[in-house]
């Protein structure tokens, strides 16, 4: 096995035993990026020089036995998360030359363990999209089929992990932006509970729904990497003072007696038959492992897409008002202040960003606020209540991640068709509950398909317990056909 193909656990053990060095491991990942990323476009920026310096420092720590599980492990960062001294573009022309002046809290927390930051990954502009086609710097291609999308908006992070360019990656999830690309690329993706991980240093899209999470090769790696990210942060008042358990302990538990709910609203017309078969097979696997399968209902979930696409544009129109050509980013000269705003934003923002700003401005304007935004927030409350009631009877929920496997680049040119990509993932963000995307199989053409596990608020350990048990029982090994 090549070094860049190792998991966090495997690489960490080899580093601790001095069988390999972080410099060798990092170089293997950098070489892989140089070989295959011209085909994928997963990375927007490769920090080769600083990565090698960090790897040398990590090796010093390892030599002194001052290492942790993540010391010397190369990872990638979605380019809407700030890393001091590096470009952070959010895949937008308006921030094309912006350089971060401070580290996001998640970067600070990871740095305590001294992993190696390889670079920044591609995404839909300002995380608005489900395919990474909305990036101002070109789409990311799926490692399993270069004619298909990697998913979005964390498509670059998912593709980088699937293609063994990085050992793990950070992403953000507002309606499925970690879980859906994880499914399309056949890796593990975790969206934590809202309030479990600090958003400080994440470029805001929809502040009430955004969450930072991880994309990894295994559920075990998810437990290891997530451990450092979770917890309250004084710089983000939405994070809560909840106890952070040792997530790796959940890896030793089985699922005998665990009650798993199957919400009927997720098995609807339009669900691809191959995906349906794979998910049904996964449900049977859980039964074999001793879980109790219970049909349940989330009656207000069908309204989630409509509610989401009112709530998010309203917050987007407010959050993106800071990009005005004055304080930072692209600035186009004009004869007046208004003209500077108009020209800078017209040139700097892509079509989808402009579309959502206009929808949000309209829905939040006088005379329409109650009819649209207020109503959408009321639906959000009903959806949250649905999940709360469901978890009174079951420990977990199991659903598909996406109605289908990865689609072809350019296939969903209609914005409404793209918005429907969030139909199975968006409800979790509206409810604030955590979700784990775990590989469950592949289509006849070899495209990955993941299942989605859902837990009550702040109970990510249940996701890790069930996800790991399923992963070990299935023994699925998905590898892209990518050469290089």
Explain how this protein is built.
With 484 residues, this protein is α/β, with parallel strands linked by helices. The protein has a single domain (3-261, 392-474), classed as Amidase signature (AS) domain (Amidase signature (AS) enzymes, Alpha-Beta Complex), CATH 3.90.1300.10. 37% of the residues lie in helices and 14% in strands. It has helices at residues 8-16, 22-40, 48-63, 105-111, 155-162, 179-185, 219-229, 273-288, 304-319, 337-348, 351-363, 370-390, 415-419, 426-431, 460-474, and strands spanning 43-46, 74-78, 116-121, 141-142, 145-149, 168-173, 188-191, 211-216, 259-263, 292-296, 396-400, 435-442, 448-454.
Question: Main attributes?
Answer:
484 residues; alpha/beta; Amidase signature (AS) enzymes; eleven-stranded mixed β-sheet; 13 strands; 14% strand
Brief summary:
The protein has helices at residues 8-16, 22-40, 48-63, 105-111, 155-162, 179-185, 219-229, 273-288, 304-319, 337-348, 351-363, 370-390, 415-419, 426-431, 460-474; strands spanning 43-46, 74-78, 116-121, 141-142, 145-149, 168-173, 188-191, 211-216, 259-263, 292-296, 396-400, 435-442, 448-454.
> Poorly predicted ranges (pLDDT <50, ≥5 residues)?
none
Superfamily at the CATH H level?
Amidase signature (AS) domain
Overall pLDDT metric: 96
Q: At CATH's second level, what is the architecture?
A: Alpha-Beta Complex
What is Rg? 21 Å
The major beta sheet can be summarized as:
11 strands, mixed
Strand order of the largest sheet: 1-3-2-6-8-7-12-13-11-9-10
Could you give the count of β-strands?
13
């Amino acid at each position: 096995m090549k070094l860049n193909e190792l998991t966090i656990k495997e690489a960490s053990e080899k580093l601790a035993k001095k069988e390999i060095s972080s410099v060798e491991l990092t170089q293997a990942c950098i070489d892989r990026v140089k070989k295959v990323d011209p085909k994928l476009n997963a990375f927007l920026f490769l920090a080769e020089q600083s990565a090698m310096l960090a790897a040398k420092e990590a090796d010093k720590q390892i030599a002194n036995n001052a290492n942790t599980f993540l010391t010397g492990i190369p990872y990638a960062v979605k380019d809407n998360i700030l890393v001091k001294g590096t470009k952070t573009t959010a895949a937008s022309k308006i921030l094309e030359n912006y350089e971060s002046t401070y580290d996001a809290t998640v970067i600070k927390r990871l740095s305590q363990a001294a992993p190696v930051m390889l670079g920044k990954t591609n995404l839909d502009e300002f995380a608005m999209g489900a395919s990474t086609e909305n990036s101002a710097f070109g789409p990311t291609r799926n490692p399993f089929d270069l004619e298909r999308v990697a998913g979005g908006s964390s498509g670059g992070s998912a593709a980088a992990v699937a293609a063994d360019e990085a050992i793990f990656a950070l992403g953000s999830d507002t309606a499925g932006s970690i879980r859906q690309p994880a499914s399309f690329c056949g890796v593990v993706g975790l969206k934590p509970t809202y309030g479990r991980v600090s958003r400080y240093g994440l470029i805001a899209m929809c502040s009430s729904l955004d969450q930072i999470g991880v994309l990894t090769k295994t559920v075990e790696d998810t437990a290891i990497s997530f451990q450092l990210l979770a917890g309250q942060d004084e710089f983000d008042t939405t994070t809560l003072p909840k106890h952070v358990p040792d997530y790796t302990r959940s890896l030793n538990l089985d699922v005998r007696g665990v009650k798993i709910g199957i919400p009927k609203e997720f098995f609807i017309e339009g669900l691809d038959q191959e995906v349906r078969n794979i998910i049904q097979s996964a449900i049977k696997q859980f039964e074999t492992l001793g879980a109790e399968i219970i049909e349940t209902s989330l009656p207000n979930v069908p309204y989630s897409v409509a509610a989401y696409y009112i709530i998010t544009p309203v917050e987007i129109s407010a959050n993106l008002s800071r990009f005005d050509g004055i304080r930072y980013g692209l600035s186009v000269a004009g004869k007046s202040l208004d003209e500077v705003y108009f020209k800078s934003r017209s040139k700097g923002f892509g079509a989808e960003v402009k579309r959502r700003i206009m929808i949000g401005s309209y829905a939040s304007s006088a005379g329409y606020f109650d009819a649209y935004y207020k109503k959408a927030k009321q639906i959000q409350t009903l959806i949250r209540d649905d999940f709360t009631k469901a978890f009174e009877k079951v420990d977990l929920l199991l659903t598909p991640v996406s109605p289908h496997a990865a689609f072809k680049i350019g296939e969903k040119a209609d914005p409404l068709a793209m918005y429907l990509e969030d139909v199975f993932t968006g409800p979790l963000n509206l409810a604030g509950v955590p979700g784990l995307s775990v590989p469950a199989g592949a289509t006849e053409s070899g495209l990955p398909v993941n299942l989605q596990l859902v837990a009550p608020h702040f109970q990510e350990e249940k996701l890790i317990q069930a996800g790991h048990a399923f992963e070990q029982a299935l023994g699925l090994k998905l590898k892209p056909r990518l050469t290089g």
